[in-house]
Known about the structure:
The structure is a homodimer. By secondary structure, chain A is of the alpha/beta class. Chain A has helices spanning about 5-10, 15-20, 50-55, 80-90, 90-105, 125-130, 150, 160, 185, 190-195, 200-210, 225-235, 250-255, 255-270, 285-300, 315-324; strands at about 30-35, 40-45, 110-120, 140-145, 170-175, 215-220, 275-280. Chain A has a single domain (about 15-305), classed as P-loop containing nucleotide triphosphate hydrolases (Rossmann fold, 3-Layer(aba) Sandwich). Helix content of chain A is about 45%, strand content about 15%. Chains A and B meet through strand 2, helix 5, helix 6, strand 4 and helix 12 of A and strand 2, helix 5, helix 6, strand 4 and helix 12 of B.
Amino acid sequence: MGKRHKKKAKGKSSKEAKHRRASAAPPRVIEQVPTADGRSVETKIAEPIGGFTEALRIDKGFSLAGLDPSSTPGFDGAKKDGRRVLAAAMDEFTDLTERLYAASTAGSRQGVLLVVQGMDTAGKGGIMNHVVSINPQNVQATAFKAPTKEELSHDFLWRIEKALPATGQLGVFDRSHYEDVLIVRVLDLVPEREWSTRYAQINAFERKVARSGTRIIKVMLHISKDEQRARLRERLERPDKYYKYTPGDVDARERWDDYMEAYQAVLDKCSTVGAPWHVVPANRKWYARLAVQQLLLEALRDMDLKWPAADFDIETEKARLAAS
Amino acid sequence: MGKRHKKKAKGKSSKEAKHRRASAAPPRVIEQVPTADGRSVETKIAEPIGGFTEALRIDKGFSLAGLDPSSTPGFDGAKKDGRRVLAAAMDEFTDLTERLYAASTAGSRQGVLLVVQGMDTAGKGGIMNHVVSINPQNVQATAFKAPTKEELSHDFLWRIEKALPATGQLGVFDRSHYEDVLIVRVLDLVPEREWSTRYAQINAFERKVARSGTRIIKVMLHISKDEQRARLRERLERPDKYYKYTPGDVDARERWDDYMEAYQAVLDKCSTVGAPWHVVPANRKWYARLAVQQLLLEALRDMDLKWPAADFDIETEKARLAAS
């Protein structure tokens, strides 16, 4: 079991306590955000909670089987607190993604890529609906389905490369190239000698992407097999959920242990310094959404995004405008 | 001046009164939404205000010069009321766009395309940030900038065609093919004999799109020249707005009347039954956002979107799931 997850589960250290103080909605604070030309801009932000990245990033030796999918690492509040923090942080999240975009107009090559994986019903759709529902010009979401004939005629990373976010964008992958070592491995869709070389290919690919300026945040939403049954049951009971169900979902359940083994292999082999994996316990939907939002926020804050300087003479333009 | 705008400006008829009752936040109501297989689903919706489409769709003979950009046709509430209604209607908007997507998974060919035009600072970005910030997998937004060399080597509709939303999606155009009869006409970027034939081309193109199942909603955000000066001034005063300003914005102001003439020509020639134009007074940002949201809602409601029926045997699947 990963050290960080274990520590969180116990929650005894003083460092822990710091991360867990946010059980109530954080107050709004006004921050003076510096701009590239030395000025500053007032921005309302929710007081950062912090610590989700550290709490959820997996360590060497992490074991999926040892993680409680109902736990809430890094947060000791209840559901209503979590929802409040999520809502309160939307302004800052929107602001940071806008700064990311603005920086790109001034030549920055930075971008962010969120990769979301998880078993059926793990809550990937909820991330789309409740976390990354921002200005659609600042986010580029791709759902990877079974590959088309054309996609299959190329290397498995071909369609991934095409979906990489443009500079200044938040890219979101709902499933990803990891399916090529998950379902493909479990169902033997290609021979082992082929899928077994893909882990190294993926690491090289992600290194290239990270070096080009894109911050990669990989998230596995982790639910229990029982929780999945309850969620699939709901899809069979609510006519507005039928379209999300396919009989294949139960087939996949029957290979649950194989999938967990394939996920464990991904975590063991593809969590790198430049593109670490985070495992988010996802039996509680509110927690999973909060955690993914906070992972994104922590990454965006760390990028130290500044509003670009004016590339024109401000006083000249004010005079021209006044005369127009 | 357009009859509908004129009527709204006076606001005397009883029909008017019906459209204007929503000055307070509408209460939430529970609606039984029918599904394709005859069942129904409970959905929380805000009580519809209604009437924006009728209030804002232009009539034959409409004159842009006669419309007050500070008016609020179809709504007599104040700013705080408008914001409350906007927020209250987000759930229904999200629900309807999800139903649009769900229907496409069951073979529906329906989609929606929102075309947003307006002078610089008219509030196009605010529509992206405050109206269509939904699940990014259900919305496909494209900002049309100056065409690239490759785009210029094709017909002007080539890049538009490529950006059309997939079935089940809400497409959003921030600027559009109309630039090819707006800036292109004002700045003589192609000879008149070329741009003058484009209106008919556009009408034929949009007819084709509408016939394929895509509901087209075209919106011009209309601000006054004074309001534009104030908004550009703000961009010159706030370091977090510099990146939105270019000296060319003042150049365009100097051709304001020519632009209004070009917009008038668009409204005269390209408002068709299948793809009508709506002119939204946009000096009040809160009103413009509310109006565009309500135009989308009215169109989506009118499409009578149903959750698809199950394409599997529900009882069989429940049994399989229980055993898994």
